[in-house]
Structure formats: structure tokens, C-alpha cells
């Protein structure tokens, strides 16, 4: 099969074998796709044109499965966060009991 349509970022597609996925990245002659179960796969552009993918609307169930929980920044534990080692040097913890 041949896919005459160009890949579109964040668009959902279905293959002839009923497999569905969305495109999460397009760069340098390849694309990254994500399946509803959250797994990713890199596909070369020449392979894309052979897939015969058709654009579809996403199922609400897929969208719910892929939603990432929103995490609030906890300012009370900022000093233990990765990459915060230089904050003490810059004076951010001058008055704390670290």
C-alpha cells in the first residue's frame, strides 16, 4: 500500500490491519508514532509512504489513556530536586537549615 498523504503532527491514523497510532514528532526524514497503549516507535519516511495509513478521529478512550497527570511544583522540596545543587551557591538557601 501507498500513503499519498503526508504525516501530520498529532494526527491519528489507522492502518489496513486496524492498528491505530498518532504522530508525535516529525524530523530528519523520520517520524515518531505513539500507540494508544503509550508505546512509541520510530518510522522512516520511506516506510511511512508504504504503510497506507488513513487519517481518523481519535477515540475518547485512547485520549484518556494517554493523558499525563498534571503535577504541581512543590516549592518545599525544591532543594532536593535534581539540578538544584547550584541554588545554594546562588544564595537561595542562605537562611535555611538544609
What's the gist of this structure?
The chain is an alpha+beta fold and 98 residues long. It has two helices and five strands.
Topology at a glance:
Blueprint: E1 12-14, E2 20-27, E3 30-34, E4 40-44, H1 45-51, E5 54-56, H2 60-66
Overview of the molecule:
It is a single chain. With 98 residues, the chain is of the alpha+beta class. It has one domain (12-87). 14% of the residues lie in helices and 24% in strands. It has helices at residues 45-51, 60-66, and strands spanning 12-14, 20-27, 30-34, 40-44, 54-56. The chain has a five-stranded antiparallel beta sheet. The longest helix has 7 residues, at 45-51. The protein is globular, with a radius of gyration of 21 Å.
Describe the structure using short key phrases.
24% strand; alpha+beta; 14% helix; 98 residues; five-stranded antiparallel beta sheet
Amino acid at each position: 500500500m501507498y500513503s499519498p498523504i503526508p504525516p501530520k503532527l498529532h494526527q491519528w491514523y489507522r492502518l489496513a490491519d486496524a492498528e491505530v497510532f498518532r504522530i508525535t514528532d516529525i524530523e530528519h526524514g523520520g517520524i515518531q508514532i505513539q500507540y494508544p497503549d503509550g508505546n512509541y516507535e520510530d518510522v522512516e519516511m520511506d516506510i511511512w509512504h508504504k504503510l497506507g495509513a488513513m487519517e481518523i478521529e481519535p477515540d475518547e478512550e485512547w485520549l484518556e489513556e494517554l493523558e499525563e497527570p498534571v503535577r504541581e511544583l512543590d516549592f518545599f522540596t525544591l532543594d532536593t530536586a535534581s539540578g538544584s545543587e547550584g541554588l545554594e551557591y546562588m544564595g537561595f538557601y542562605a537562611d535555611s537549615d538544609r
